[in-house]
Structure formats: C-alpha cells, structure tokens
Amino acid sequence: MLFLKNRSKFHIVFFKSRIKSSSGIGILFGLIAQMAIDPEYQTPVIQMINKLLLFIPIGMLFKILIEEIDNKDRYYFYYNQGITKIELWITSFIFSFSYYFIFNLIFTICRHSLRLIV
Amino acid sequence: MQTQLEVDSVMKMYGETTILADVYLSCIPGDIIGLFGRNGTGKSTLLKIIFGSLKGDRSCIRINGTIQKHGTYRTGLLAFLPQDGYLLPELSLAKCVELLLPKEHRKDFFADKHLFKIRRSKVSEMSGGEQRYAEIKLILWGKAPFILLDEPFQGLSPIVSESVREHIKIASQTKGIILTDHNFREVHKCVNRIMLLNDCYLKEVREPSDLIPFGYYEND
Questions:
Q1: Does some domain include residue A8?
Q2: Are B180 and B35 in contact (CB under 8 A)?
Q3: What pLDDT, in 10s, does the model give residues B93-112?
Q4: What percent of chain B has pLDDT over 90?
Q5: Which of A41, A61, B32, B162 has the least CB density, counted as fewest CB within 10 Å?
Q6: Is A4 a member of any domain?
Q7: Which fold does the domain B5-206 belong to in CATH?
Q8: CB contacts, 8 Å: A79 with chain B
C-alpha cells in the first residue's frame, strides 16, 4: 500500500506537469475539428465545450509524442524511482480520461439543471 | 548473499563502430569506482546500459546474483545521475526533496549552507552548479544501494566539489558508486578503484601512474 502511495505521487506529478499544455493542444485540435465539421457555428456552446473536452486526452497523446521526439532523456527523475515511461503514459491517459468524464458529468448536470429551471 | 552489482559481456555498436566489447565490471558497497576514458569511448553509454535506460547489443546485468532482464532501474536498486540533470524544472527544490527523501531525512538534507538558501527556489531558477549539487546529494541520500554518476563535478566550484567528495565518501560506506568525469583530478581524490575504457575494453588500473600512457597527468 505504501509502495503504491509513494509511486502514485510521481504519477500525479507527471500528469500535473503536462495537463495544462496538453489541454491547450487538445482544445486547439478540437476547435479545428469543430470548425471543419460545423463552419457556421450552429452547435450550442455547452455542447461544443463538452466536445472540446474530449480532445484533452488526445492533447496528452500529442504532448507525449512531441516530448518523445524533442528530448527522450527527461524521464530520469521517474526512472530513479523504478517507474517506466510506459507506466507514466498509461496513468496519464487514465487521468486525462477521468478528467474528461468528470467535466462531462458536471456539464451534463448543469445542462439538465438549467433545463429544469427554465 | 552479498550485495553486488555485476555487469558482464556488455557489447554496444553504433552503426559499424564498436563502442563497448566484452565489458566486465563488478561493484560492491564500499567501492567508489572511477571510470576513465577519452571522449567518445563509451563511458556514459556503459552507465546507461547498466542503469537500463539504453539497451546494449548484448549485456548481462546481475544484482545480488539475479539477472536483470527488463531495465535494471525498475528494481529501484540503482540510481543514475545523467549528464544533463534529472530534476524537474517546474518543481521547487523543497518539493523534489519531499518526493525523493523520507520525512526523517529532509531536515538534515537542508542543514547545508549550499542548499538552505535555495530550498524554496524552483529548479529552473537555480544556477547550474546549485542544481548539480542538489541532484548529487539527493541521489547519494536516496535508498538505492548502487549509484551511477555521470560527470558529477561538471560546473561545480572547488568548494562545492569538496562537499560532493565528502558526500560520496559517506555514501560509499553503505553503497557502491561508479562515477565518470573528465575532471580526473577530482575523481582521483575520492575513488578507491580506477577503471579505464580504452579501445572498447574496460580494464582495472592499479596505480594512477598507469594512466600516464593514456594521456593523463601528461603535463605534471
């Protein structure tokens, strides 16, 4: 249990240090995709934001790919704890999907609440 | 069984060029092994192969008699200081220490004139020498019984180098240490075994004077 607790700290550090930039990359991709699908901006804003959030895990994938090409040697901090980069990648994807599901849930609740109020 | 790191039959080629051939090395706690060799002889490559972050074309790494097949570092029995540093630039030194050292050692770690004043600084805000010193001390204070140091004295002032040598000596009481640095005079001051990488082969050197034919101490 203590072993898992110690390792999870490093996984969270890895995720936290990448989530901002990967969200940026993901949302950028999402906007481009949205513009291609709906050039006349007819999709409701809440629905659009909801769709954009789906691109956060995709942004994480791109961020990791860019890092892998740019500098492969940035994992020694984690290697010294016995953590492989595959482990870090997998947990980051799980975290970013969880991130998406939580926000998706919040948006769904807000949307339904608004409908009820209206 | 005695704690021992054994590296056997290491071979590495880059294209058609052989860098390492049939390298054998053993290290036990108490050893401070200085790895010497000219630029491009494969010292860093050998350390990375031992650590497991680079695959040798052939290699056999044993720790306490157990062959390590998938990245030695995964055992947590080895720690490596790479040439370009390893601390995360976005974290503060205090945060790095919190992550890497047990609670009971943190206070003693910062009872150090070189580190106390920069404990709240981000790694990216620290000077190259400060960062290097913090990295070395963190590695040496860690729990891994075998330490690999690639260019530890790079960018350090003579005073800080002296502190590093002290830390290496203290750590070697319970750990086996392998280090390589182009500043061979600094290395000589703290090692108790010398190994020379020359023409792809690694051999043990008994006396520092045996290094003179290989270009060391030529101007002394």
A1: no
A2: yes
A3: 999 999 999 999 999 999 99
A4: 74
A5: A41
A6: no
A7: Rossmann fold (3.40.50)
A8: 51-53, 73, 80
Nearest residue to B20 (alpha-carbon basis) of B51, B47, B53: B47
Spatial CA neighbour of B51 closest among B152, B146, B175: B146
**Residue whose tokens read 């092994």:** B33
Are the C-beta atoms of residues B152 and B81 closer than 8 Å to each other? yes
**Which two structure tokens, joined as six digits, stand for B178?**
């392998």
Q: What are the boundaries of each domain within chain B? A: 5-206
Task: Report ipTM (2 d.p.).
Answer: 0.92
User: What does the pLDDT look like over B166-212, one tens digit per residue?
Assistant: 999 999 999 999 999 888 888 888 999 999 998 889 999 887 777 77
pTM of the model: 0.89
The Cα–Cα gap between B181 and B159 comes to 17
Question: pLDDT tens digits, residue range A63-108?
Answer: 888 888 887 678 999 999 999 999 999 999 999 889 888 888 888 8
Q: How far A90 CA sits from the closest chain B CA (Å)?
A: 16
- Structure tokens given for A91: 């947990």
CA-nearest residue to B139 within chain A is: A80
Task: Indicate whether A107 belongs to any domain.
Answer: yes
The two tokens of residue B4 are: 């021992």
Q: Which candidate in B48, B63, B73, B150 is best for mutational testing of the A interface (most A CBs within 10 A)?
A: B73
